[in-house]
Amino acid sequence: MARRDYSMLGSDARRAVETGLATAEWYHTDIPRKDMKALMKRTDSPAIQDTLILFGCMAVFAAVAIALWPSWVAVPFWLAYGVLYGSAMDSRWHECGHGTAFKTPWMNDAVYQIASFCMVRNPVTWRWSHARHHTDTIIVGRDPEIVAMRPPALIRILLNVFGILDALNGWKRMLLNASGRLDPEEATFIPEQEHPKVVRVARIWTVIYAATLASALLAQSWIPLLFIGLPRLYGAWHHVMTGVLQHAGLADNVLDHRLNSRTVYMNPVSRFIYWNMNYHVEHHMFPMVPYHRLPELHEMIKHDLPEPNPSIFAAYAEVWPALKRQLRYEDYFLRRDLPATARPYREDLHADALGIPAE
């Protein structure tokens, strides 16, 4: 096969439209309508509790770190603050972007705006980008959020463990948007009437960052930057560690989330930071189910899904060899076995993808 073209404006984007992969109908496990309606019911209390814990911990860690500064004893508290700023905000951005974390719309929007700022993701741009990700999940040339491309850009992933490329690209895009312009690829999925909103947000953010930088220079202190901006770098490692596992090493250009998404059992701390997005097959099949109901959804449909990886470590034991093999043969992918109770994969629908040598 020819080298994959991940551009939203390239040959694979056109091919996805021509072959019917774009905006296609996906496989879903059958769930009784009554049960699905109950799962999709929204409530404020779980997300309010989690948000109070999150911001409370951030306030405590930052206060202790500032009080101990410039002693090295402050470092663990800055690191803990950074993980909540640079990783937990990733999952809050994600779930509140779906509008499912809270029942009350303004609560979803408030947390979404804060989390978008922390992650340096324009809230207007990324709302449309993520909608495309769900519509065309891991469809080459259509999905703008593919992390583990083929062949895998391992250096890029490693640099993003420290937030380097994603954050720098975010700040670069912020300045571009603040100048009144959009990237050509952004324009393929953001409606024209939304463009002024993209620019307005970017200009507000630019003012905030300028004020933060000025405060650091005037005070001759790193504290303002350790509080705003730099945590996106030194706290990014957890969201990259968990995010890579979502789709890496699995099939692309298929219409069954059981083939291109991965569910991983995780420890309670990582699940809090990640807001249950470790149930990723379930989330992609039914994205309107709130994060706090995903464990229930998993129990209801696990008979139809591949066996989850039992831990983060076990998942990487599966992913890492697959990524190394893709460096030499980019068409390789992992095909997860289904239990006997599951409906089989559509061999006819995915003939091209499933004809590739797989395990």
TrEMBL record:
Pfam families named in the record: FA_desaturase
Keywords: Membrane, Transmembrane, Transmembrane helix
CDD domains: Rhizopine-oxygenase-like (cd03511)
Domain of life assignment: Bacteria
Residue ranges annotated for the Fatty acid desaturase domain, each copy included: 70-313
GO MF term (any one): oxidoreductase activity, acting on paired donors, with oxidation of a pair of donors resulting in the reduction of molecular oxygen to two molecules of water
InterPro entries: FA_desaturase_dom, Fatty_acid_desaturase, Rhizopine-oxygenase-like
GO cellular component: membrane
A single GO BP: lipid biosynthetic process
Transmembrane intervals: 51-72, 153-171, 204-223
Protein name as catalogued: Fatty acid desaturase
Organism: Marivita geojedonensis
